[in-house]
Amino acid sequence: MESLYVIEPGSYLRKDGNCLKIVKDRSVLTEIAAGGLERLTLVGRTSFSGAVLDFLIKNRIDTVFLTPTGRFRARLLLDEAGHVQRRRDQYVSLAEEQFALQAARVIVRAKLENHCRYLREKGRRYKIEVLGKAALQIRAVSQQLERVSDLNIIRGLEGYGARLYFSVFNLLIRNADFEFKGRNRRPPRDPVNALLSFVYTMLTNEVISAVSSAGLDPYLGALHEPAPGRPSLACDLVEEWRIIGDRLVLALLNRKVIHPSDFIRRSRGQSGRPVEMKPAITRALISSYERQMQTRVKDSATGEKIVLRWLLHRQAGRFGKWLGDRKAVYHPFSVSV
Q1: In angstroms, how far is the first alpha carbon of the chain from the final one?
Q2: Which of 60, 111, 214, 320 is least surrounded by Cβ atoms within 10 Å, i.e. has the fewest?
Q3: Is there a domain that residue 331 lies in?
């Protein structure tokens, strides 16, 4: 097993030999062989023993802590002393204004083109003219990027393109039980936004693992400014993968796998988050996410079929090579629709 998610409220992890046990109220819920475990994600209020912590450190298991809504809280930071040259290339390259501008353009163009391609295809399939018009508008925004030499304007174009995309997102939902009135977060205020935020967080953590494995510093990027606690490079490189999260959420909604009863809703006067996924649907979402990450997709650079998770790692490595070789070209992931 490569990835383990622990989402049961009030549970804790205990090591027993070469196994990890998920325990709640003194009862063992699950026993998992620890050999081969590469990623551990703890959702909500889950704790573990000192023996488990020692095991995680010794075996260099990437461990992430998320809130119940999927928001990133913390990560067990492991030593990455073997990548000095790669990180030096990153610091030098991204400190140069022109290179940082070019990197930001590449990242934003990829995101907008993925959105454009997806809306255009769905517009044809659903025979909704508005989706095609939004795709054309996003394409026009993307075409402005080459004429821009100010990083803040590039960020503004990215934001405008995202608003255009989400202005028609509700038309992609073919389930009368759910409605999307616009993107909101921190905290999300409706079920669709709760699903999107949770999946985006999981994707961002995938990218953090990938850029760390590639020897890069996840906290220094081009498009997103450095800020305390913000993995700016991961936030940059996850942009090309967001469409994967959108497709997953839409597939679950449109197949009616998810129902309104899967969410806890609170009024403004109540304490807690406005909307929260119940544990059962959280497990189902994680299971669907893991299946998607194990699917094979085409690597446009080589033409070969590769597991999506490892393509994400491969892309992080390519970005790192670009930082050290200015003559190289970085080609972001292009979604097939």
Answers
A1: 30
A2: 60
A3: no
